[in-house]
């Protein structure tokens, strides 16, 4: 891997190697946070990415070693990103629902006049009488 000459810091080298070791798709959903005592801390978009990438940890470690040319990273810790969107809590109603009888009363006066097909209008009237 061609690294700039100023990259002697192990963390900077691991950051630079991550996109190539992880691949374009994985790198676009992750962010290297830091290198702590040989463990690369990688933030992922959500818990699903965390679970999936945890299973690929050994493969990614091998890719990192190949990119860096030495076993600089001993482990990878995948963590959900800090700015994850909050889940919406259940919301309370702002007004009471209307009773079904009130709705039916409003519909009864409107629907027969709106049905243009005489057969459908007849079927509607029959079903309305049968319902009570």
Can you summarize this structure?
The protein has 132 residues and is α+β, with helices and mostly antiparallel strands. It has helices spanning 10-22, 24-28, 47-55, 57-68, 100-114, 118-131, and strands spanning 30-36, 39-44, 75-80. The protein is built from 6 helices and 3 strands, in the order ααββααβαα.
Spans of at least 5 consecutive residues whose pLDDT stays below 50 are: none
Going by helix content, strand content and strand pairing, the class is: alpha+beta
Task: Calculate the terminal CA-CA distance, rounded to whole Å.
Answer: 80 Å
Number of helical elements? 6
Strands side by side in the biggest sheet? 1-2-3
The share of residues in extended strands comes to 5-15%
Q: What helical percentage do the residues reach?
A: 40-55%
Order of helices and strands: HHEEHHEHH
Rg, alpha carbons:
31 Å
Shape: rod-shaped
């Amino acid at each position: 891997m061609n690294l700039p000459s100023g990259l002697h810091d192990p963390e900077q080298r691991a950051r630079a190697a991550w996109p190539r070791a992880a691949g374009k798709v994985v790198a676009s959903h992750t962010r290297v946070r830091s290198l702590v005592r040989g463990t690369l801390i990688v933030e992922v978009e959500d818990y699903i990415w965390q679970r999936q990438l945890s299973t690929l940890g050994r493969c990614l470690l091998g890719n990192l070693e190949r990119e860096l040319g030495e076993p600089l990273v001993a482990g990878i810790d995948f963590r959900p990103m800090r700015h994850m969107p909050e889940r919406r809590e259940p919301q309370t109603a702002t007004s009471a629902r209307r009773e079904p009888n009130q709705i039916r009363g409003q519909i009864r006066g409107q629907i027969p006049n709106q049905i243009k097909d005489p057969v459908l209008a007849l079927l509607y009237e029959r079903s309305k009488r049968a319902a009570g």
